[in-house]
Each structure stands twice: as C-alpha cells, then as structure tokens.
Amino acid sequence: MTVSRWTTVAAAIVGGAMLATSAMGAQAEDRERVKIVQQALKDRGHDPGAVDGQMGPKTEAALRDYQQKEGLRGTGTADADTLTRLRARTPATAPSIGSSATGTSNDGMATETRQTK
Description:
mainly alpha; single chain
C-alpha cells in the first residue's frame, strides 16, 4: 500500500487539530482548578485578586503567603503539599481541589462518582 504525500499531510493536520482541541480542554480544566484554589485562598483570608482562573501575580503572592503561614515552602505555586493542605480545609460542599467537573482525579485518571441513598 502506498501512502501519498497528501494523505500524510492530511493526517498531520487532523492530528494537530485533535491535539489543539485536547489542549484547549486541558486549559479550561486548568482555569477551573485555579478558580477553586483562588476561592479556597480567599476563604482563608488571603487575597488572590479576582477569582478568574488566571494564575497571575496576586494569586502567586496569596499562595506564597498561605504557604508560609502554613509552614510550607513558599513557592507561590499550587504544588501537591499546598493542594493537600487546602483540600483538607475546604468545606465538604465546595468543589474538590485537584479534580475537575469532568471527572478526573489528582493523578489524571478518570473517576466515577455515585450517590447512595
């Protein structure tokens, strides 16, 4: 079977479009996670600025302040230790930090939640 140059080009374009769509979905999930972190910081008296899903300088400063007050390394990033600490103090009715509405766990594996009565 001979694969033409145009078939290869078309496959590359389709594959690139699929990757771009996947990346856009991941970016939306990341923004949602940042919003959850921002709200958790705000709930604890730290000022991340607007809860907009953007990891800007105010969010980084709020994270750094929270980390230092909690005895964590003040990196200004939402690292695993910080997320664990924030999650432990998040009300049960709040969305989970480190997961998303699309059903992924902290390790990126698909999850399924069932309600029991």
